[in-house]
Specification:
Layout: E1 2-7, H1 12-27, E2 32-37, H2 50-67, H3 73-78, H4 87-99, H5 105-117, H6 126-139, H7 146-153, H8 156-171, E3 179-184, E4 187-193, H9 198-209
Parallel strand pairs: 1-2
Antiparallel strand pairs: 1-3, 3-4
Helix pairs in contact: 1-2, 1-5, 1-9, 4-5, 4-6, 4-8, 5-6, 6-7
Organism: Paraburkholderia panacisoli
GO molecular function: oxidoreductase activity
Protein name: DsbA family protein
Length: about 210
């Protein structure tokens, strides 16, 4: 049985769900987990104006209330000429997967989430992403520097691999993030769409495993 997690590091509900996802994985260490990057706003060219900021702050408040996740609102409000393009950060997670296939991609995913939502980092900038990604892999014991990370992130291989994740997201007919699917006996079925509690997901997984 494999659990498929589809999300985007710049999706606030995915950020709120990270704690639940971590709880699931820790409680079921033998469970195979596949991380698929969804591309929430991949390729967007729209500058985040005041109305866009307020829209996101409203969502953040709901996520915070439900999940307890903390947000750096001041960093969002202070952004100037920020284009909310999520392709670069999705590609950064894919880059980590290409560099170190055995790395815990959920932890890398979480590092980019914290960088955006708490540190106020520009997760659309390749050099910034390379620093975050390399640090996350180094913390897990891998010898990867930011220069090497950036080179792979900028490669055609990483771009194509990221687009493959987006294509899989469309194939799975994902309608919201985060989404969970279960692959069992060669068949894939949707487990949840949107925020869910670890307890409810675990209960379903245990039932399926039985």
């Amino acid at each position: 049985m494999k659990l498929i997690f589809v999300g985007d590091p710049m999706c606030s509900w995915c950020y709120g769900f990270h704690k639940e996802m971590t709880t699931i994985v820790e409680a079921m260490p033998d469970l195979e987990v596949q991380v698929v990057l969804g591309g929430l706003a991949a390729g967007s060219t729209k500058v985040l104006d005041d109305a866009g900021k307020q829209f996101r702050l409203t969502h953040w408040a709901r996520v915070e209330q439900l999940s307890g996740a903390q947000f750096n609102r001041e960093a969002l409000l202070a952004r100037k000429n920020f284009v909310y393009d999520t392709e670069p950060v999705c590609r950064a997670v894919v880059t980590a997967r290409l560099l170190e296939p055995s790395a815990d991609l959920l932890k890398v995913f979480g590092a980019f989430q914290r960088a955006f939502y708490m540190d106020g980092a520009d997760t659309t900038d390749g050099e910034v992403l390379a620093e975050i990604g390399a640090s996350a892999l180094q913390a897990a014991g891998f010898e990867v520097n930011a220069k090497a990370f950036l080179a792979v992130w900028a490669s055609d291989e990483a771009i194509q691999a990221t687009h493959a994740d987006f294509a899989l997201t469309r194939e799975l007919r994902v309608s919201g993030f985060p989404s969970l699917f279960v692959e069992l006996d060669g068949k894939i079925g949707q487990l949840s769409s949107g925020y869910a509690t670890a307890a409810s997901v675990q209960q379903t997984l245990l039932r399926l495993a039985a």
